[in-house]
Amino acid sequence: MKRLTQTVAAGAVIASLSAAAFAAGHASYTIGVSNTVQGNGWREQMICAMNAQALASGDVAEMIIAHRNTDTAGQLEDIRNLIEADVDAIVLNPSNPDGLNDAIEDAIAAGIVVVAVDAGVTAEGAYILSNNQEEYAYLGARWLFEQLGGEGDVVYMRGIAGVSADTDRDNGFQRALAEFPNITVVHEVFTGWQQDQGKQQMLDFLATGIPFDGVWTSGIDNVIVDAFLESDVPLVPIVGADNAGFVQMLTEVEGLEGAAVTNPGSVGGAGVTLALQILEGNAPDDPLVLVDPALWDNTTDDGRAQITSAQNPNLDPEWPVSVSIDGWTTYSMDQIIACEGPGE
Amino acid sequence: MTGFLKKHGWTLGLLAILLTLLIAIRVVQPNFGASGLESLARAALPFAFATAAMAVVVIAGGIDLSVASMMAVTGVTAAVLMDNATEGQAVFAVIAVLLVGIAMGAINGALIVLTKVPDIVVTLAMLFVWEGVALLILSTPGGGAADWLRSIIAGPVSLPFLPEAWTFWLPNAFIFMAVAIAVIWLPLRRSKLGLSIYAIGSDDTAAFRSGIAIGRTRVAAYAVAGLFCALGGLSLTMGTGIGEPVPGPYLMASVAAVVLGGVVLGGGRGGLLGPIIAVFILRAIRLLLTLMAVDPNVTTIVEGTIMVVVVMLGAILMMRERRS
Fold this sequence. Notes:
heterodimer; A: alpha/beta; six-stranded parallel beta sheet; six-stranded mixed beta sheet; elongated; B: mainly alpha
């Protein structure tokens, strides 16, 4: 039994030494991934971005991916299994900010770099890389208010009350609103990020006949355009996300002025880049890294060019069309569509 | 000796499979040791209770599709009651949660007995009812758990009168599971109620003619299942420190472990030891596949295939034995 203890202790020492040796120069890391939603376009893009970025970086020897539909207890199991697999870093999309801390702390104690993407975790020592949701809302709202000439009534269609992404977006929206004193919110609703619900809410509001000049949506976008078209009401400027359906409408629907703000699932790839940077000794000062969104409007040549170049018929229609993040991902469009990691 | 082997053949076979898996894990990952066993035991904990719950009702000739939903209700109840509670108050929270579990199970059983609607239909309906109840109690994940409760399943066993080297590989989570199930199941199995549960599962007409109160026994079996679900829900809250209202993947996993564990789906035969070992086998397979970096989409296929093959092999062996 004593021998076993020694073996375990020796193993731990060797593991930490070899991690240090890798950090010094030669780079051939193993990266573990944990995700708890399977079969959702945004999440599948995230996984493919992780694979593609690991391959494109040339610094990753192996990806171990725990990707299934499960609860927080299941994600705890997956993280602990990844620790057992002696990975160098774990990139995870956390199912809950507080529920995973035990396992994340175990991982950090074992010398593993932990990067949470898309949502935060509260564990000490973990890094968080997320789309900047406040900026997301600010960018779109500012574009809309400028489009209206700084004056008019807007409909504000939010996500889910109490969810952190919605709260952050509201902060950004309010910041933009404060800059334009002559803009008024005439109607504010929670769509629950549900297509059918958002569409019905817009149909109902159009039926009231209350005039308004623009719509800001929290990503439930193409159905809002549908509601206008079905009600046979003149279109107003609409802000949405870079979902394939809405982006296509921006190029095809006659008379639609609008802008898509990017909310890329490729933060997964950015998470891999951040993990590799930390492994190489270049950890950011702030453990919270935010990826700034981009805005593509169809009212300028620049914006139209970006929309056109982002569209790709080979892309899964469920995916967001922004498949890469400037400064964070280096893979090609073909690589992310192929969805293959190193060693496959 | 051969009698013992025959009687416990299935369980011993499962143990052999588990041991083989652990050796395979050790080969793939030479560093696998005490912390790995702890990961395995902690991962198995909620599945083990869900499986124990399912096994009891299956032995009684029924099925309970609402086990995962009942775990969600008890998990969020525990998290809500313990949020901002003192460590002492948490004791009452735990007792309350166990009672809630028994009550939910008894309601399931009473509905089946009183309405005479098939158990599969009633518990399918209750799956949605309890899921809704969990969301009413806590609409988004949250709440808390007492530190003493969480520490019960953390780390390895340490006993004051034993040297650490003897116990460092034995996880607390495993002890908690073994003790909780043994304290409920061993006395029950030998009691009049336990024998009645086996009897109604085996042949309820014969049981009725032997003077067993079928209805009452059935309600009791579902209540025991509810108690195990409460322990499962508690173990979820103990592991995560929060309550989650949306049920986890425990229903199908518990049916799988019960079948793999040698409990006959028709009822009346089998115990809890086999299904619990089966739970560990299923967790060990996932760990092994993770260590081998198998494609995540292939992992579930492999898990399912192994299960079918084991159950089929077992059936073939049993048939041969009967013929000879």
